[in-house]
Design a protein that fits this description.
By secondary structure, the chain is α/β, with parallel strands linked by helices. 32% of the residues lie in helices and 20% in strands. It contains 12 helices and 15 strands. The protein has helices at 18-33, 51-64, 70-79, 90-100, 117-126, 146-157, 175-186, 216-241, 250-262, 392-402, 411-421, 444-448, and strands spanning 9-13, 41-45, 80-84, 106-110, 135-138, 165-167, 199-207, 272-277, 295-300, 312-317, 324-331, 349-355, 358-367, 375-384, 431-434. The strands form 2 sheets. The protein has a 9-stranded mixed sheet. Strands 3-2-1-4-5-6 form a 6-stranded parallel sheet, with helices on both faces. Strand 1, helix 1 (18-33) and strand 2 (41-45) form a beta-alpha-beta unit. The longest helix has 26 residues, at 216-241. It is globular and about 80 Å long. Residues 463-469 have low confidence and may be disordered. The structure holds 6-O-phosphono-beta-D-glucopyranose (BG6). 6-O-phosphono-beta-D-glucopyranose is lined by residues 208, 227-228, 325, 355.
Length: 469
């Protein structure tokens, strides 16, 4: 804790908001519990609240999520401060400066809409709270398209240099996503098959069995493409497909990831199917004639030596049959059926389940017991759930306080992801209705037709069997 580069205060803007409630308070309590947070924590918002009200909100949040650890909570409550005020009002930043006391290297976490990033950054600069050594964490979505992401970067760079900016994508903080990276580069048997010679296709499904959960207003601005495809899923794909980093430092890893994203071909209108669940229009904050997608399926191409010609399918949607995020890498079938014919559905597959449970599985085949030489599916599977797993926000806030940018998205890779999705944003393509509880509009099946259809994730907890021929 005596590290002279470590942040000596944590300021979070948007302290009374949804994200603070769902993610930040539980992460803060956990950090205190693990001994990684013992500096002032200052919430800022415009709600007409005082510190006691913020503490009530924090306790409510903990009760609703991880539960209250009385010891850690008592310490966190001592660290908590609160500043109430408008982000455009210099008095707010004056009050913040007072609360910062002697802190010289605050970490400012902007859990607020991107339209306010510039105002807050300027307020911090004028109050002397953005001096060298201070850092800023910004939430996704970082921009609305390539042009606005560039503009946002320009605005933030007026106050903070790139090395002080930490763009959160909480998927990168997930143990399961880090394990994708580790698994690939720590196992010799993976590398020889990881590329166009042996991989038939790559597929990522992010399914959620719920709707927009009262976030209609936010979702109207986003839609599935901006909410999860441009960030979580393309970043996950990059981790899965990037070349080995050339060194052990954060920048080598981020260089390798950015290079891969730059080799993704911008999507065309033929590569996307957008859907909207029936009933979306009845959600609070949703326009009655909204064409915002709650489902998106895309067929992507990576124009690199390793991946040329390998189809990549990604789909994400709300109100699907279950909540599960899964990455499937399907291998080509053996060139000849020596004993029996291996059908497409019986090909070897790597299945990385990123949530809700975390598993890595390899679908293989073995001889079925008995007289003949015919096979049956076997599943080689590891299940990961460890009490040592750090939830993503705890991990990422802790890393930002240390100044470790490894798991944060760099400006060039954020811009490269926008370049991939830019041509399909907004109403570039029609939106097809689908029934809640289904796997999205049937039009999406055409996208997956060249790879024998989508691999629907097996239900949570179920082992994988032979899919029907
Ligand atoms: C958020 C999106 O970034 O990720 C949400 O805004 C989505 O719409 C959520 O539900 C999913 O995160 P996780 O960690 O539950 O898979």
């Amino acid at each position: 804790m005596s590290d002279p580069t470590r942040s000596d205060a944590l300021v979070f803007f948007g302290a009374t908001g949804d994200l603070a409630y769902k993610q930040v308070f539980p992460a803060l309590q956990s950090m205190v519990k693990h001994g990684t947070l013992d500096v002032p924590v200052i919430g800022v918002a415009k709600a007409g609240w005082d510190l006691d009200q913020l503490k009530v909100r924090a306790r409510d949040s903990l009760t609703a999520h991880d539960g209250i650890d009385e010891h850690a909570w008592t310490k966190l409550a001592e660290l908590l401060r609160y500043v109430d005020g408008d982000y455009g009002d210099p008095a707010t930043f004056k009050a913040l400066e007072e609360q910062l006391g002697g802190a010289k290297r605050p970490l400012h976490y902007l859990a607020i809409p991107p339209s306010l990033f510039g105002t807050v950054a300027e307020g911090l600069a004028s109050a002397g709270a953005a001096e060298p050594g201070s850092r800023v964490v910004v939430e996704k979505p970082f921009g609305r398209d390539l042009a606005s992401a560039r503009e946002l970067n320009r605005i933030i760079h007026r106050t903070f240099p790139e090395e002080a900016i930490f763009r959160i994508d909480h998927y990168l903080g997930k143990e399961a996503v880090q394990n994708l990276l580790y698994f690939r580069f720590a196992n010799t048997f993976v590398e020889p098959v990881w590329g166009r010679d042996h991989v038939e296709s790559i597929e990522i499904t992010m399914a959620e069995s719920f709707g927009v959960k009262g976030r209609g207003k936010f979702y109207e601005e986003a839609g599935a493409i901006r909410d999860v495809l441009q960030n979580h899923l393309i970043q996950t794909l990059a981790v899965l497909t990037m070349e080995p980093p050339s060194g052990h430092d954060a920048e080598s890893l981020r260089d390798a990831k950015a290079a891969l994203i730059r080799s993704m071909r911008p999507l065309s209108k033929d590569d996307v199917v957008r859907g909207q669940f029936k009933g979306y229009h009845d959600e609070d904050g949703v326009a009655p004639d909204s064409t915002v997608e709650t489902y998106a399926a895309v067929r992507l191409a990576i124009d690199s030596w390793r991946w040329a010609g390998v189809p990549v399918l990604i789909r994400a949607g709300k109100e699907l049959p279950e909540t599960v995020t899964e990455v499937v890498v399907e291998l080509k079938r053996p060139p000849l059926g020596v004993f029996d014919d291996i059908r497409p559905s019986q090909a070897n597959r790597f299945r990385f389940r990123l949530g809700p449970e975390v598993t890595i599985a390899i679908e293989a085949r073995a001889k079925a017991p008995g007289g003949g030489m015919s096979g049956e599916p076997v599943l080689l599977q590891v299940m990961h759930h460890s009490p040592k797993d750090l939830p993503p926000y705890e991990r990422l806030l802790g890393d930002a306080m240390k100044g470790d940018a490894t798991l944060f998205a760099r400006q060039d890779s954020v811009e490269a992801t926008w370049a991939v999705v830019d041509p399909i944003l907004d109403d570039a393509t029609p939106v097809f209705p689908y029934e809640p509880g289904t796997w999205g509009p049937s039009e999406a099946d055409d996208l997956a037709q060249p790879v024998h259809g989508w691999n629907d994730p097996p239900p949570t907890g179920a082992s994988t069997g032979d899919a029907p021929a």
